[in-house]
Design brief:
With 304 residues, this protein is α/β, with parallel strands linked by helices. The chain is built from 13 helices and 8 strands. It has an 8-stranded mixed β-sheet with strand order 1-2-4-3-5-6-7-8, with helices on both faces. 50% of the residues are buried.
Amino acid sequence: MVKRFVALIAAAVLPVFVRAEITPYPATFQTKMVQTNGTSLHVRVGGKGSAVVLLHGFGDTGDMWAPLAAVLVKDHLVIVPDLRGMGLSEHPDIGYTKKNQARDIAGVMDALKVQRAALVTHDIGNMVGYALAVQFPERITRWAVIDAPIPGIGDWDNIIRSPLLWHFNFRGPDMERLVQGRERIYLDRFYNELSADPKRIDDKTREHYAALYAKPHAMHDAFEQFAAFNQDAIDNKALLAARGKISMPVLAAGAEKSFGPGEAAVLRFVASDVTQVIIPASGHWIMEENPRETVHLIAGFVGH
């Protein structure tokens, strides 16, 4: 698994699925600040029917999900928060363990009077997603988990030794001073190294996210997401030991040029009903690199 993850920067000649720029959400979506678990999250809400919650990761915000949301909203109530301290959500000083952020999301569901929902997650969203599914299994009907490991689970101790994951321990006041005013340069490193083809992540997309991560406290709080990983690993091992494997259907989607089948390998440690799929022609940034296939796979799974 580690070898495959390290290989994600390999060059490839692939068909192009470029999203020209950040896709806007359909006009039917509303945005609101939702008070939850001692903070306030920026949440996009649209549609009606069975609910779907979409959780983003680092380098993105909930904006990443717009092409998927535009499809799901035809038949579902679609709920897309920015995680604590990210995007347009509030920036509290504490609370960045994924176990706690799962309570953020449960509180959003409560505020919107949603008892049960399907869950779609990517990157750090996967980590919040597991904590949500294992703590509140009665509230998650099915879970599509995309291209990132879960702290403390499976081959985690070897995965974090990958040189590509140097940023897990890059934080602190001096690091923040180095990045301040250079957020675009910092994020470009991840868009370039973790993609199959950096050209698929266009300049307007990069500028959009760089501006959001340049907001006051935004990069500090992004670093706090990584700083919590050690505690997340402890929490996840304890949750798995106490509660066992989750039983809802899980779609484990690894990008072809990133985590690949390793995604399903990780999820089988914590879930009993795992289906493996590969998002072709993509590195880690699935919604920027191959939105068409990602939307097809996820919409098919959620629509069951």
